[in-house]
Amino acid sequence: MDSYDLLVIGAGPGGYVAAIRASQLGMKVAVAERSELGGVCLNWGCIPTKALLKSASAYHYATCGDTFGFSAENVVPDLGRMVTRSREVSAQMSRGIEFLFKKNNVTVLQGQASINEDKTVRIDGEGPAFNVAAKNIIVATGSRPNSLPFAPIDGERIISYRQALIPDKQPKSLAVIGSGAIGSELAFFYSAIGTEVTLVEYLDRIVPLEDDEVSAQLSRSFRKAGIKVMVSAQVKSVDVTGELCKLAVETKKGTETVEAETVLSAVGVVPNTEYLGLEKLGVDMNRGKVIVDKWYKSSVDGIYAIGDIIPTQALAHVASAEGICCVGKIAGLDIEPVDYDNIPGCTYTSPEIASVGLSERKAAELGIEVKIGKFPYTASGKATAAGARDGFVKLVADAGTDVILGAHIIGENASEMIGGLVAARKLKVKASDLARTVFPHPTMSEAIMEAAEAIHNETIHI
Ligand code: FAD
């Protein structure tokens, strides 16, 4: 039986990063993967959605000749070709992981892995099943779409993000249930290429994990773009028997019927932890997620878990950070645990959203007195030149120490701008430091400096 220092189950952004780092640290490493290298992130999540959104953006600009000064006739979106491009981008990135594994001497075991009671790992692939031994096992098996009990995903009328990324045809109308990042991005994409979209959110605002003002801005922008936004709206049933799906939606005004050719269920994800043998081994679990300590060790020696299957934010960069931290600890390095208070989150709609740290609401809930500084994109020369004036930068600073506690950006390029603020938070930078930092002109990032100045009522440009 082959034997490894580390066997990683799952080659998503948690698993592949952990495997490569472990090999770099001198371990003999194998990765078991039942499907595509790169996991959901590269194949069904982060990357293919961004490729589609880029197509939508290119199409949008091609239709904006009146604004930007050109003529273009017969500009027609072709979803099939957009999907082909998106799949090629994913395949290219997946091949990149294959290359990295080869370069770093990581062995790939293609097949479904499960852990035997003696802690060897069984691999069921195309050939005969076989077992391998490993001193340490990291489980990084990710997640799959959740669904509402009364609206099971059938892949045709009621679809998940998977089918939404490779549709047979463009639906004329689409009802999206759930306005988190996945629901909002796909709602935006389909609306941008001409599908009539209704976005239904149970809570009282869309992108409910974001700052309240960010939610309000995205609602305005979505409505301006023609998306019908329903909040405080609970889907009670979905009838798929007719030509159009009929959603019974309970709102403050009573029960409304939403009709759509297709329904996209975007109500979160569930961890892939069944069939792994974890319960039999006595691994502590809670609602399908593996309970781990701050070094990702489960309740059973030698078994670790990272990424979407543990109760931390289900984000690719979180999974990768956990993988690096977990492997570093296994190797005996002196490392810091992941700081979950300083994790950025992005939603790649137009306008984009990016945030890190405390929102104004969260600070109030925690009883922290804060000062707020805000700068609108309407006052940004670069945003105006780009024809992208929807949005703002909002900073939350501690009222006593002036240290930046939170940053909330909605507007073009938000996701490219948040990294600097994550670093600022890590380094406990003060708003006054940011205000005295010279940002390049003209850039949208100047709005960060201006928002910092606004905290001290020093804004010059508005
Ligand atoms: P995964 O990426 O899910 O990888 C797990 C791997 O394990 C899979 O390849 C699976 O085939 C394999 N596997 C499972 N069980 C077994 C088994 N028994 N044996 C062998 N292999 C197994 N996050 C962001 O940070 N930014 C984004 O923009 C973003 N966009 C997203 C858009 C969509 C539509 C979706 C669905 C998700 C998005 N996410 C985004 C979330 C991100 O994709 C996940 O948080 C991330 O992929 C989790 O990484 P992971 O390594 O835990 O698992």
* Bound ligands: flavin-adenine dinucleotide
| Rg (CA only) | 23 Å
Low-confidence stretches: none
Q: What summary fits the major beta sheet?
A: 7 strands, mixed
In terms of DSSP E residues, the strand content is 15-25%
Global morphology: globular
Q: If you average the pLDDT, what whole number results?
A: 97
- Assign a percent range to the helix content: 25-40%
Output the keywords.
alpha/beta; seven-stranded mixed β-sheet; five-stranded parallel β-sheet; binds flavin-adenine dinucleotide
How would you describe this structure to a colleague?
This protein is α/β, with parallel strands linked by helices and 462 residues long. Helix content is 32%, strand content 25%. The chain has 15 helices and 24 strands. The strands form 6 sheets. Strands 1, 2, 3, 4, 5, 6 and 19 form a 7-stranded mixed β-sheet that branches. Strands 8-15-9-10-11 form a 5-stranded parallel β-sheet. A hairpin with a 5-residue loop joins β5 (121-124) and β6 (130-139). α3 (46-62) packs antiparallel against α5 (79-103) and α3 runs parallel beside α7. The longest helix is centred in the N-terminal third of the chain and has 25 residues, at 79-103. It is globular and about 65 Å long. The mean pLDDT is 97. Bound molecules: flavin-adenine dinucleotide (FAD). Flavin-adenine dinucleotide (FAD) binds at residues 9-15, 32-35, 39-41, 44-46, 49, 112-113, 140-143, 161, 182, 272, 276, 307-308, 314-317, 319.
